[in-house]
């Protein structure tokens, strides 16, 4: 069942790499007391995923001004994330969910259809998590165009 407004955000602790190339472990508890935009995307260096990462990077100053952080999550490796961050100048951490268990806990992994074919995979999803670790807003089956602007508006309370 998809997560809804007011639900507790599932806890996580995953390896990741930030925009400076520093590797670390990222956990939900690290963001207690501030807002977090957590988004799941299928794969580094694909057209939609690249556009979404670039859009979040371009909006990062507005996001930080509103008191929030951004984390991107995909099954890709640290090495793949590092190349993606470097090539696209991504300014926020990307986390490795190799077994897709975190995506599963957020209902961001499951059956999806592409070009008439059904397969299992990451369902492009974004979560705005409040200062207390609750889901403030959830977006499932995200369309990339205009999505980051919608997230920023929700962050500002509009």
Output the keywords:
158 residues; alpha+beta; seven-stranded mixed β-sheet; two-stranded antiparallel ribbon; 27% helix
Outline the secondary-structure elements.
Layout: E1 13-17, E2 23-27, E3 35-40, H1 47-58, H2 60-65, E4 68-74, H3 78-88, E5 94-96, H4 101-105, E6 109-114, E7 117-122, E8 125-129, E9 135-139, H5 147-155
Parallel strand pairs: 3-4, 4-5
Antiparallel strand pairs: 1-2, 1-5, 3-8, 6-7, 8-9
Radius of gyration from CA coordinates: 14 Å
Task: Please name the fourth-level CATH homologous superfamily.
Answer: Glutaredoxin
CATH fold title: Glutaredoxin
Structural domain count: 1
Question: How many helix segments?
Answer: 5
CATH top-level class:
Alpha Beta
Largest sheet: 7 strands, mixed
Name the strands of the widest sheet in spatial order: 2-1-5-4-3-8-9
- Corresponding CATH architecture: 3-Layer(aba) Sandwich
Question: What value does the average pLDDT take?
Answer: 94
For the record, give the distance between the C-alpha atoms at the N and C termini, rounded to a whole number: 26 Å
